Amino acid sequence: MSEEKNITESTKYETFTQEEYMIMKDDLLRPIEKIGKAGKIWIAFLVAVCLAGVVAYYIQETKSKYVTVSLRDYTMWGVYISNFVFFVALSLVGVLMSAVLKLTHFEWYRPLSRIAEVIAVGAIMLAGVSIVAAMGRPDRLYYLVTHGRIQSPIVWDIIVIMTYLATSIILLFIPLIPSLSTCKNHLKNLPKWQLKMYEMLSFGWEGTPEQWKILKKTVKILTVLVIPLGISIHTVTAWLFALTLRSEWDSTNFGAYFVSGAFLLGSAAMIIATFIFRKAYKLEKYLTEMHFDKLGQVMVLMGLIYAYFNINEYLVPAYKMSGLHANHLLNLFTGEEAPFYWSVVFFGIVVPCILPMFKKMRKPLPLTIIALAVFIAGWFKRYLIVIPGLLHPYLPIQDVPASWTHYSPSLIEWTIVAATFAAMMLIVTLFSRYFPIISVWEVAEGKLEGKEEIINYK
Amino acid sequence: MEKYKYFIATCIMILFSIATSYAQDKEAKITLTFEKADSLYVCKALVTSEGKPVSEVPVNLSVKRLFSNLPIGDAVATDSTGVATFEVPQDIPSRNGKLTIFAKIVDDENYMNTEASGEVNWGTVVVSDNSNIDERSISGGRGAAPIYFIVASLLAIGLVWGTLLYSILQVFKIKRLGTVNKN
Q: Residue B166's closest chain A neighbor by CA?
């Protein structure tokens, strides 16, 4: 505790020595040097779930989809699409926790930015996978390029996903270059290929003033770029719904509603990830209680904004209760889906708005439990946005089979969804096993308050 | 007696179905006539069996569409002269003004299924104004997107990807500076 206090205090003064830097470097590189038994079991488990997903997808694609998945003429978008929306929302964590905080000079972002960026890269990749899993004919995906219309939101979505993925990878990689040089210089007992990888990827980093200048300028440009991109990716995802003629999605509010939800989900994901990395890699000195306190405050703010958009989204049409909306809204408020809907509202909106307001609730463990509830409710919220409305079509068909009027995902669908989660966690885990999950130089620079001395530390 | 109830019910049902199948064996013939009465289009279906008009037989009228027949109103029973009279709507769309109208007897108790058809010039010719089909619009095809839309999209895409390309080039610049420094 006293050590932690010392480091916190050092931010206020310019007392930062080479020796302190070496201690910090050792702390932050330790997770790369050896993988514990628990770590190996965790990776094996994630790989097993991913493989189960691959097998499930093979079954889905080789047998009739009518048999393997529960999608029908009414519910043609099921868990795959709600999972896609969830992952796109999750990918905005990079925008919020890295870019926004960085540009607004909230110094506590420093140890969190890389964690946020890795989650963003993993999430956007798996959002793409979820979309492909939902396709009736994935073999025709390239038709989007050869026959796609630029006027179509699905084409915008593909373009913006690819662009955001590329930007996130570049934005993750460039600030990693000095860290890779640190890995190259200080990690010794590692396989040859790994050391070679650090050598190659550190791009001849010497830490010269010119190199630092270019690196910081490029990172700044990308940081500015990633904010409108992140907002566009989720707005376009919202437009995939809002530009249709279906009443439950007919809203001019949808883009902002989705983005605000993504920021709340991002703060929850960040709390969970910070808690896990803090415990698993013993990073208590860097991911401090202060971070949880701040993240808890972010969660309240984002929760309140999201609550505001929810009121707009549900209570405005509910006040009018026009025929088109009534079917869907009454089903959510008082009908079949009511217990499900109100649980999601409680855990996904009420809890994050109120509980973290109390200081005691912003301690690591209670806040992580709250964040877990928000995270799970966040997934089901996307389920509620996509699915129940589809069960009330504009033109009801006579004598529809019972299976069209209800939707419960098949085992194949659940397995693929579970595999996407496992794959995302695997990406984050493997990254943290090969690269420093906390940026050594960014944390050190924070402690020096922008002094130029950092360029001498390699 | 209770014991044989099901047996007797089954026998009666078998006998009933044999009787109905024999009853349905009678053949009927439909003759269609089309006439214009005042401003109405009237179609008359005369149902005869063995040369005699048949009364109280329901006849269904329908018009041929692209994939199947579209029913025109409910079934009408033949009167004492064996004629079922239908009023045909005047707004049925057609490519060349011609309509193929079908009269059918379906699942009647006494007569076998039968149908007759006739062609009549009562359709409303639909003229589509396709003059704007090649115009550029949001709802247009791949090659017909509005120019402002293509320009705006390409500008946005170019600007973002240009910045990304610039960032990648900066990485190589970092490498070059590192090599220079080493030497």
A: A218
Q: How far is A208 from chain B (nearest CA, A)?
A: 8
Q: Are strands B124-125 and B93-94 parallel, antiparallel or unpaired?
A: parallel
Burial class (CB in 10 A: 0-12, 13-18, 19+), B182: exposed
Q: β-pairing, B99-105 with B76-77?
A: unpaired
| Pick among B160, B173, B182 to test the A interface (most A CBs inside 10 A) | B160
CA nearest to A156 within chain B:
B153
Kindly report the average pLDDT of chain A as a whole number.
Answer: 88
Nearest residue on chain A to B179, alpha-carbon basis: A204
CB contact under 8 A, B167 and A205: no
Contact: B139, A163; criterion CB under 8 Å: no
What tokens does A72 get?
A: 């029908």
Is residue B111 within 8 A of residue B54, CB to CB? The reply is yes
DSSP strand pairing (B114-120 vs B83-88): unpaired
Q: What is the pLDDT of residues B128-149, one digit of tens each?
A: 888 888 889 988 888 899 999 9
Give the predicted TM-score (pTM) of the model.
0.81
- Domain ranges, ordered by start, for chain B: 19-125, 142-182
- Tens digit of each residue's pLDDT, chain B (183 residues): 677 888 888 889 888 887 766 666 788 999 999 999 888 999 999 999 988 999 999 999 999 998 889 999 899 999 999 999 999 999 999 988 999 999 999 888 888 899 999 999 999 998 888 888 888 998 888 889 999 999 999 999 999 999 999 999 999 999 998 887 776
The minimal CB distance from A163 to the residues B138, B160, B167 is found for B160
Answer whether CATH 1.25.40.10 is correct for domain B19-125. no
Nearest CA in chain B to A210: B177
Nearest CB partner across the interface for B167, out of A147, A170, A210: A170
Q: Is the Cβ pair B173, A174 closer than 8 Å? A: no
What distance in Å separates residue B117's CA from the closest CA in chain A?
29
Set of chain A residues whose Cβ sits within 8 Å of the Cβ of B182: 204, 206
| pLDDT, tens digit (0-9, with 9 covering 90-100), for A204-255 | 888 888 888 999 999 999 999 999 999 999 999 999 999 988 888 988 999 9
